[in-house]
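Open question from group meeting: does this chain pack into something compact, or does most of it stay loose? Before anyone orders reagents, we agreed to write out a predicted structure and look at it together. Recording both the input and the output here so the notebook holds the full record.
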Amino acid sequence: MKTEFSLAQLADPDIKEADKILRACVHCGFCTATCPTYVLLGDELDSPRGRIYLIKEMLEKDRPPTQEVVKHIDRCLSCLACMTTCPSGVNYMHLVDQARVRIEKNYTRPLPERALRAVLAWVLPRPGLFRWSMMLARFGRPLAALLPIPRSASASPTLLRRIKAMLALAPRRLPAPGPSGGSVFAALGQRRGRVALLQGCAQQVLAPRINQAAISLLTRHGIEVVLVRDEQCCGALTHHLGRDDDALARARANITVWQKEAEQGGLDAILVTTSGCGTVIKDYGFMLREDREFAPAAAKISALAKDITEYLGAIELTPSQQQSDIVIAYHSACSLQHGQKISELPKELLSKNGFVVKDVPESHLCCGSAGTYNILQPDIASRLRDRKVANIAMVKPDMIAAGNIGCMVQIAGGTSVPVVHTVELLDWATGGRRPGLS
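Structure tokens returned:
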């Protein structure tokens, strides 16, 4: 794609990066076939190619974002299926992230939408506040079904529609909190390694059982696990809302405490059980590339970050029981298969440990969770969820496995089939507890 940025514009590192990304695009359109919003809506501007044109126009002419641009960028799930499909290696992730930052800084949204986004950015990264908000949501959830709000994918959802979606996602009950930062879990038997385990934000409130299963599995196989004190939200939630100052501040804070832990106790890896977080942490090196103080450490932390299945694939697991009759529908989270290029390994681990693993039709398409997308774009998100659930039902599973808490909550909202994390099944298969689903 031809670009016409001025020399002055190209002096900006972000514009220089955008120029490189735009020039890689050859207009082939392969991305349209795997873009969830294009598949649903059939609008060229709701495809990666269409959004690339909109972003190019906005950046090249240095214009404030228009309402039309904002609408179509907001509809992007950042599922990154287009990056898996693209034959030219267009880094759409970095381009759309840059567009979101510009929109956040230069576009004035309606007051109710600004307020909702501010609340999400403030509450979700703070587990204490998030737990409190979920407790309040329990009282409001019964009222959600009474709100007579029609779906409309042709216009921006109303505030009431978004509130209804948010209440519908709230769990009926909250599990007890898991272990806190500063905890160390000793390896059983001879120590074979030492890792930090990301505590997460929403996950530690909604499903602390996931990290508990990871700790059980790892320690049983000789791996010492530490929950690093003063660790913060990884920054993914605010990063995708375009609030880069907040996201980068959290990245720097995490780099500081993880680097200290690595220097004092040694770390083989920083393990992540929420793939949406893992994709962003692995990108810290890029996000802080212009920060002279943090760039080297950011690159090292990104290199240490691994999805839990990556690490488990490199150590020998010893099954203590076989569950060969249990059929698992494996949902490949977008952030894992497209963002981190990990697609086959989780299925291989499950198969090797006795489960019957079935591929889900249209596995490349997003379930509609996408961070806060199912709150901010509930109509499209619910259509994608219904499509995903229908595809899962085709394989008639006993359980559904996924590697991302957002996907798990989203899919569970449309099916009665138990939805569990991949690591819960692996823990169970190697002598741990059966997933409690609570």
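Observations to bring back to the group:
Residues 327-429 form a domain with the Rossmann fold fold (CATH 3.40.50.1860).
The mean pLDDT is 92.
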